[in-house]
Amino acid sequence: MFGARPVNRGDKRRTGGHETWFAIMEETTKQKIVPEEWDDFVKFISQHRVEIADGRYDLRIEKDWARDLTDQDLLLLIEHCPSSRLTIASATRSVEVLDRLAHDPSSDVREEVADNPRTPACTLAPLAKDSIAAVRMAVAGNAATSEQNLESLSKDAVNYVRWGVAHNEKTPTAVLEMLLKDLDSYVSDEAKRNPNATKSGFWSRLFRK
Predict the structure, then answer these.
(1) For residues 187 and 163, is the Cβ–Cβ distance under 8 A?
(2) pLDDT tens across 95-123, in order?
(3) Is pTM, for the whole model, over 0.85?
(4) Rg, Å, the chain Cα set
């Protein structure tokens, strides 16, 4: 059976009448596998689905592949192949997979989910309250984030989270008005550059004096 013998270098095997390259690295509990071709990757999943589910293999995945895999295969990988989660979180279009990864113990994975433009507002909502500021900043900059969460994040104690809201072109004018008065100049200056910010003309500035 393919992959039964652990190796720590590129391993050349003959399958289906042609030679295939896989980089396989041995770990204490499972083998890390880095397929080099899309067709071989899909074939390996199909032939070793049970072994993957049993925790024998940890497949690494290319970003482009994450966009094309079925939800069934993606769910199998994020459940049993930790090396694939970060890439899948950044590239998948699957709402179900993104929702599952939003609860991942790794803040790096949650940050990629928060940054993914395909992540829906309902999945971003709990991430807006994440204990890790980098995750909240990614939510603040996501165009899919709800106005309610953008308003909440505009009051975040961490300046670069507020900067993310100021930078988001979906941030409502009313929220930007508050950020224009932010004590941190990086935040207020970014709010001024936002196309939704109210642009004060000469006469409005004059009457404010």
Answers:
(1) yes
(2) 999 999 999 999 999 999 999 999 999 99
(3) no
(4) 23
